[in-house]
Amino acid sequence: MKKLVTEIDVINLIRSGSRVLIVEDGYIFTPLALDKIKEKKITVVNKSKTKNSNIIRIAIGSDHTGYTVKLLLIEYLQAKNYVVEDVGTFSEESCDYPDFAIAVAKKVLLENVNFGILIDATGIPSAITANKFPGIRATTCYDEFSVKSAREHNNANILVLGAKTLNEEKIKLLVDIWLTTEFAGERHQKRIDKIIELEKKILK
């Protein structure tokens, strides 16, 4: 069944704080919707075509302490042609980190994105929250070794960073390593499988 994307749909997307519109084959855009997409520089991603492509989609979220770093990372990643979906927060007004950790974790689990990135003051509380979801492996990383190991050995799917523990250049470096390091598999997969089995037992 075809879905019609209207100008109101685009306006609602903008109000939510996102600048990425995810669609699938068969979606139809009204002329006013196309005008609004062009005017507001909305990135349209066809999920059907990108799921198995080389395009990397990232969900990013932060609390108020990570807001400034989040904006910096979004600009940095978009300049490198990553597709970034911002789930909030959208200001420096005090807010609760679990809300955004939950939002990013859900997008990773639903495979709407390839990876998630979370930022709070230390990187610890958002990781604790995200890891409540079976299938999520959120890791707080603080140097090159920890971030490389998280991807290569642990197949982690959410990177969590501390805005008050790392400077901006270090954060960019860690994100670059995260996104260019692949899971090594083999003996590491056996260990991940044990984690998955543990999650299944807990859910019974």
Which terms would index this structure?
single chain; 204 residues; alpha/beta; Ribose 5-phosphate Isomerase B, Chain: A; 2 domains; five-stranded parallel beta sheet; 9 helices; 46% helix; 18% strand
Can you walk through the features of this model?
- The protein has 204 residues and is an alpha/beta fold.
- The protein folds into two domains: 1-53, no CATH class; 56-203, Sugar-phosphate isomerase, RpiB/LacA/LacB (Ribose 5-phosphate Isomerase B, Chain: A, 3-Layer(aba) Sandwich), CATH 3.40.1400.10.
- It is 46% helix and 18% strand.
- It has nine helices and nine strands.
- It has a five-stranded parallel β-sheet, sandwiched between helices.
- Helix 4 links the parallel strand 5 (57-62) and strand 6.
- Helix 7 packs parallel to helix 8 (168-180).
- The mean pLDDT is 90.
Low-confidence stretches: none
Biggest sheet features: 5 strands, parallel
Strand content: 15-25%
Instruction: Supply the CATH class of the largest domain.
Output: Alpha Beta
Give the count of helical stretches. Answer: 9
Helix/strand-derived class? alpha/beta
CATH superfamily of the largest domain: Sugar-phosphate isomerase, RpiB/LacA/LacB
Instruction: Output the strand order for the largest sheet.
Output: 6-5-7-9-8
Instruction: List the secondary-structure elements in sequence, H or E.
Output: EHEEHEHEHEHEHEHEHH
Helical content stands at 40-55%
- SS elements, strand count: 9
